[in-house]
Amino acid sequence: MADKELQLVDHLEELRKRIIISALAFIVFFIIGFIYVDDIYKWFVRDLDVKLMVLGPSDIIWIYFMLATVVAIAGTIPVLALQIWLFVKPALKPNERRLTLSYIPALFLLFIMGLAFGYFVIFPMVLKFLVNIGAGMFVTNFTADRYFSFIMNMTIPFGVLFELPVVVMFLTSLGIINPFVLSKIRKYAYFVLVIIAVVITPPDFMSDFVVTLPLLLLYEVSINLSKLVYRKKLKKQQEEEIIEVN
User: Fold this and answer.
1) Residue numbers of the domain that contains 87
2) How many alpha carbons fall within 13 Å on the CB side of residue 167?
3) Backbone CA torsion sign across 176, 20, 100, 191
4) % of the chain exceeding 90 in pLDDT
5) 60-94 residue pLDDT tens
6) How far apart are the C-alpha atoms of 152 and 136, rounded to whole Å?
7) Where are the transmembrane segments (predicted)?
8) Whole-model pTM above 0.85?
Protein backbone atom coordinates (compact mmCIF):
# COMPACT_ATOMS: atom_id res chain seq x y z
CA MET A 1 0.00 0.00 0.00
CA ALA A 2 2.84 2.35 0.91
CA ASP A 3 4.60 1.56 -2.40
CA LYS A 4 1.47 2.38 -4.38
CA GLU A 5 1.08 5.69 -2.55
CA LEU A 6 4.73 6.48 -3.22
CA GLN A 7 4.31 5.71 -6.91
CA LEU A 8 1.23 7.92 -7.06
CA VAL A 9 3.14 10.78 -5.44
CA ASP A 10 5.99 10.31 -7.94
CA HIS A 11 3.56 10.37 -10.87
CA LEU A 12 1.85 13.51 -9.57
CA GLU A 13 5.22 15.19 -9.06
CA GLU A 14 6.25 14.26 -12.61
CA LEU A 15 2.93 15.56 -13.96
CA ARG A 16 3.39 18.81 -12.04
CA LYS A 17 6.87 19.19 -13.54
CA ARG A 18 5.56 18.70 -17.09
CA ILE A 19 2.72 21.19 -16.55
CA ILE A 20 5.12 23.81 -15.18
CA ILE A 21 7.48 23.42 -18.17
CA SER A 22 4.56 23.75 -20.59
CA ALA A 23 3.27 26.83 -18.76
CA LEU A 24 6.73 28.44 -18.85
CA ALA A 25 6.96 27.73 -22.59
CA PHE A 26 3.57 29.39 -23.08
CA ILE A 27 4.75 32.47 -21.18
CA VAL A 28 7.99 32.70 -23.20
CA PHE A 29 6.16 32.44 -26.53
CA PHE A 30 3.54 34.89 -25.28
CA ILE A 31 6.25 37.45 -24.54
CA ILE A 32 7.80 36.88 -27.98
CA GLY A 33 4.40 37.33 -29.59
CA PHE A 34 3.76 40.47 -27.55
CA ILE A 35 7.06 41.96 -28.73
CA TYR A 36 6.22 41.35 -32.39
CA VAL A 37 2.51 42.22 -32.25
CA ASP A 38 3.02 45.25 -34.48
CA ASP A 39 4.45 43.14 -37.32
CA ILE A 40 1.78 40.44 -36.85
CA TYR A 41 -0.97 43.06 -36.90
CA LYS A 42 0.31 44.64 -40.11
CA TRP A 43 0.43 41.24 -41.79
CA PHE A 44 -3.18 40.45 -40.90
CA VAL A 45 -4.53 43.81 -42.13
CA ARG A 46 -2.36 44.06 -45.25
CA ASP A 47 -5.28 43.45 -47.62
CA LEU A 48 -7.86 45.58 -45.83
CA ASP A 49 -8.99 48.72 -47.62
CA VAL A 50 -10.07 50.39 -44.37
CA LYS A 51 -8.33 51.10 -41.11
CA LEU A 52 -9.63 49.14 -38.14
CA MET A 53 -11.22 51.08 -35.30
CA VAL A 54 -11.00 50.70 -31.56
CA LEU A 55 -13.75 51.84 -29.21
CA GLY A 56 -11.54 52.43 -26.20
CA PRO A 57 -7.99 52.12 -24.82
CA SER A 58 -8.76 48.66 -23.41
CA ASP A 59 -9.39 47.35 -26.95
CA ILE A 60 -5.78 48.11 -27.88
CA ILE A 61 -4.28 46.00 -25.11
CA TRP A 62 -6.87 43.31 -25.81
CA ILE A 63 -5.59 43.05 -29.42
CA TYR A 64 -2.05 42.74 -28.13
CA PHE A 65 -3.03 39.96 -25.75
CA MET A 66 -5.08 38.07 -28.35
CA LEU A 67 -2.40 38.06 -31.05
CA ALA A 68 0.30 37.16 -28.53
CA THR A 69 -1.88 34.31 -27.25
CA VAL A 70 -2.19 32.82 -30.74
CA VAL A 71 1.60 32.88 -31.11
CA ALA A 72 1.93 31.32 -27.66
CA ILE A 73 -0.52 28.51 -28.47
CA ALA A 74 1.23 27.66 -31.75
CA GLY A 75 4.66 27.71 -30.13
CA THR A 76 3.61 25.73 -27.07
CA ILE A 77 2.03 22.83 -28.97
CA PRO A 78 5.32 20.98 -29.73
CA VAL A 79 6.58 21.67 -26.21
CA LEU A 80 3.35 20.35 -24.69
CA ALA A 81 3.46 17.30 -26.95
CA LEU A 82 7.04 16.61 -25.86
CA GLN A 83 6.09 16.91 -22.19
CA ILE A 84 3.20 14.49 -22.66
CA TRP A 85 5.58 12.07 -24.38
CA LEU A 86 8.12 12.35 -21.57
CA PHE A 87 5.37 11.72 -19.02
CA VAL A 88 4.17 8.50 -20.69
CA LYS A 89 7.64 7.45 -21.87
CA PRO A 90 8.37 5.10 -18.91
CA ALA A 91 5.27 3.05 -19.79
CA LEU A 92 6.30 2.70 -23.45
CA LYS A 93 8.49 0.07 -25.04
CA PRO A 94 11.65 1.23 -26.88
CA ASN A 95 10.04 0.92 -30.33
CA GLU A 96 6.92 2.74 -29.09
CA ARG A 97 9.07 5.56 -27.75
CA ARG A 98 10.70 6.13 -31.12
CA LEU A 99 7.38 5.95 -32.94
CA THR A 100 5.47 8.32 -30.68
CA LEU A 101 8.38 10.80 -30.58
CA SER A 102 8.02 11.27 -34.34
CA TYR A 103 4.47 12.57 -33.79
CA ILE A 104 5.66 15.77 -32.13
CA PRO A 105 6.79 17.72 -35.23
CA ALA A 106 3.72 16.40 -37.07
CA LEU A 107 1.45 17.93 -34.42
CA PHE A 108 2.98 21.35 -34.95
CA LEU A 109 2.92 21.14 -38.75
CA LEU A 110 -0.71 19.98 -38.85
CA PHE A 111 -1.75 22.77 -36.49
CA ILE A 112 -0.11 25.34 -38.77
CA MET A 113 -1.74 23.71 -41.81
CA GLY A 114 -5.12 23.93 -40.08
CA LEU A 115 -4.60 27.60 -39.29
CA ALA A 116 -3.56 28.23 -42.90
CA PHE A 117 -6.64 26.42 -44.22
CA GLY A 118 -8.90 28.43 -41.94
CA TYR A 119 -7.25 31.75 -42.77
CA PHE A 120 -6.67 31.43 -46.53
CA VAL A 121 -9.76 29.37 -47.46
CA ILE A 122 -12.52 29.71 -44.86
CA PHE A 123 -11.97 33.24 -43.54
CA PRO A 124 -12.07 35.13 -46.89
CA MET A 125 -15.03 33.06 -48.08
CA VAL A 126 -17.11 33.76 -44.97
CA LEU A 127 -16.04 37.41 -44.75
CA LYS A 128 -16.93 38.05 -48.40
CA PHE A 129 -20.33 36.42 -47.92
CA LEU A 130 -21.17 38.46 -44.83
CA VAL A 131 -20.02 41.76 -46.36
CA ASN A 132 -21.97 41.11 -49.58
CA ILE A 133 -25.26 40.39 -47.84
CA GLY A 134 -24.98 43.71 -46.05
CA ALA A 135 -23.96 45.72 -49.12
CA GLY A 136 -26.29 48.64 -49.75
CA MET A 137 -27.90 48.26 -46.34
CA PHE A 138 -25.13 49.18 -43.92
CA VAL A 139 -21.96 51.21 -43.68
CA THR A 140 -19.36 48.55 -43.10
CA ASN A 141 -16.75 49.49 -40.51
CA PHE A 142 -14.67 46.96 -38.60
CA THR A 143 -13.51 47.32 -35.04
CA ALA A 144 -10.17 45.68 -34.34
CA ASP A 145 -11.45 43.43 -31.56
CA ARG A 146 -14.39 42.11 -33.63
CA TYR A 147 -12.21 41.62 -36.70
CA PHE A 148 -9.53 39.61 -34.93
CA SER A 149 -12.08 37.65 -32.91
CA PHE A 150 -13.67 36.69 -36.21
CA ILE A 151 -10.29 35.56 -37.58
CA MET A 152 -9.61 33.47 -34.49
CA ASN A 153 -13.03 31.82 -34.70
CA MET A 154 -12.38 30.92 -38.34
CA THR A 155 -8.85 29.55 -37.88
CA ILE A 156 -8.15 28.05 -34.46
CA PRO A 157 -10.88 25.36 -34.69
CA PHE A 158 -9.28 24.11 -37.91
CA GLY A 159 -5.86 24.13 -36.30
CA VAL A 160 -7.24 21.82 -33.61
CA LEU A 161 -9.22 19.61 -36.03
CA PHE A 162 -6.18 19.10 -38.28
CA GLU A 163 -4.42 17.48 -35.31
CA LEU A 164 -6.85 14.55 -35.49
CA PRO A 165 -4.70 12.11 -37.52
CA VAL A 166 -1.66 12.42 -35.26
CA VAL A 167 -3.73 12.25 -32.08
CA VAL A 168 -5.43 9.10 -33.36
CA MET A 169 -2.07 7.52 -34.20
CA PHE A 170 -0.70 8.39 -30.78
CA LEU A 171 -3.72 6.98 -28.93
CA THR A 172 -3.64 3.85 -31.09
CA SER A 173 0.02 3.28 -30.30
CA LEU A 174 -0.84 3.52 -26.59
CA GLY A 175 -3.68 1.01 -27.03
CA ILE A 176 -6.36 3.50 -25.95
CA ILE A 177 -8.27 3.30 -29.23
CA ASN A 178 -8.14 1.11 -32.34
CA PRO A 179 -9.32 1.39 -35.98
CA PHE A 180 -12.29 -0.89 -35.33
CA VAL A 181 -13.76 1.56 -32.83
CA LEU A 182 -13.14 4.47 -35.21
CA SER A 183 -14.87 2.61 -38.03
CA LYS A 184 -17.78 1.69 -35.80
CA ILE A 185 -18.46 5.29 -34.80
CA ARG A 186 -17.83 6.64 -38.33
CA LYS A 187 -21.43 7.72 -38.97
CA TYR A 188 -21.59 9.59 -35.65
CA ALA A 189 -18.24 11.26 -36.34
CA TYR A 190 -19.42 12.26 -39.80
CA PHE A 191 -22.55 13.78 -38.32
CA VAL A 192 -20.55 15.85 -35.82
CA LEU A 193 -18.09 17.03 -38.50
CA VAL A 194 -20.91 18.02 -40.86
CA ILE A 195 -22.60 19.97 -38.06
CA ILE A 196 -19.31 21.77 -37.35
CA ALA A 197 -18.90 22.62 -41.03
CA VAL A 198 -22.46 23.93 -41.37
CA VAL A 199 -22.22 26.05 -38.21
CA ILE A 200 -18.97 27.82 -39.11
CA THR A 201 -19.70 28.49 -42.80
CA PRO A 202 -22.18 30.71 -44.68
CA PRO A 203 -25.58 29.14 -45.43
CA ASP A 204 -24.84 27.95 -48.96
CA PHE A 205 -24.08 24.47 -50.26
CA MET A 206 -20.71 25.28 -51.84
CA SER A 207 -19.25 26.71 -48.63
CA ASP A 208 -20.52 23.77 -46.60
CA PHE A 209 -19.03 21.34 -49.14
CA VAL A 210 -15.63 23.08 -49.21
CA VAL A 211 -15.32 22.78 -45.43
CA THR A 212 -17.01 19.39 -44.91
CA LEU A 213 -14.92 17.48 -47.46
CA PRO A 214 -11.50 18.14 -45.81
CA LEU A 215 -12.92 17.26 -42.39
CA LEU A 216 -14.31 13.94 -43.61
CA LEU A 217 -11.06 13.19 -45.41
CA LEU A 218 -9.17 13.90 -42.21
CA TYR A 219 -11.30 11.34 -40.39
CA GLU A 220 -10.74 8.71 -43.09
CA VAL A 221 -7.00 9.40 -43.07
CA SER A 222 -7.07 9.01 -39.28
CA ILE A 223 -8.74 5.59 -39.58
CA ASN A 224 -6.19 4.38 -42.12
CA LEU A 225 -3.26 5.65 -40.08
CA SER A 226 -4.75 3.97 -37.02
CA LYS A 227 -4.92 0.69 -38.97
CA LEU A 228 -1.27 1.07 -39.95
CA VAL A 229 -0.14 1.68 -36.38
CA TYR A 230 -2.40 -1.11 -35.06
CA ARG A 231 -1.03 -3.68 -37.54
CA LYS A 232 2.55 -2.77 -36.67
CA LYS A 233 1.75 -3.05 -33.00
CA LEU A 234 0.16 -6.50 -33.42
CA LYS A 235 3.08 -7.69 -35.54
CA LYS A 236 5.56 -6.52 -32.90
CA GLN A 237 3.60 -8.28 -30.16
CA GLN A 238 3.53 -11.51 -32.17
CA GLU A 239 7.28 -11.34 -32.74
CA GLU A 240 7.86 -10.82 -29.03
CA GLU A 241 5.62 -13.77 -28.18
CA ILE A 242 7.56 -16.03 -30.60
CA ILE A 243 10.84 -14.93 -29.03
CA GLU A 244 9.52 -15.68 -25.53
CA VAL A 245 8.31 -19.17 -26.60
CA ASN A 246 11.67 -20.00 -28.17
Assistant:
1) 1-237
2) 12
3) positive
4) 22
5) 899 999 999 989 998 998 899 889 888 888 877 77
6) 27
7) 20-41, 61-88, 100-127, 147-176, 188-205, 211-230
8) no
